[in-house]
DNA-binding response regulator (Nocardioides daphniae), 214 residues
Amino acid sequence: MAEVRIAVVDDHPVFRLGLVALLRSLPDFDVVAEAASHAEALEVVDDAVDVVLMDLHLGAGSGIEATRDLVRRHPGLKVLVVTMQEDDDSVAAAMRAGAHGYLLKSAAPDALERAVRAVTHGEMILGPGVAERALAAVLSGRGGGRVAFPELTDREREVLDLLARGHDNPTIARRLVLSPKTVRNHVSNVLAKIGAADRTDAVIRARDAGLGQD
């Protein structure tokens, strides 16, 4: 069997080092790159990498955005999210960004090995706890009506909606009873999370997703 070439992206050095050591102890796995941030991931991951193990929290950066950017640059790349977050919105955002799998950091080593091998072969994989939540959402009818941009907080989505309606920062601040600085911070977070180049791009994406409409 050909070696699976892996990159590990996680901003917690102790966990990252432990994960790298575990992966290198497994047959046919070769860790060829490590990164602690979105920017570092873009630097070290190239077409020689088969699978990226991605944390969702990368300090000031977002694993969702890192996943989206890496998949755009390397269409054949498989991303397996390995995170502490098990909420439905995080799972949905990761899959929308192009991830092939979602695993919790509490997963057993053999579950991690199976997940890496599965995504390597193009399978979609969800860890046991994540899969149970996803199935429950489908059975309860919650799977078909997800909000736009689940990677955003409710407040960030409100700000994006007002941007899509053509409001400037001072107007948004008055409407939401926030300080101008807080609004600027929210706008910056929104642009980063949805991968928008600027406000105009964010408005276009928001309107395409149905925001900014009565």
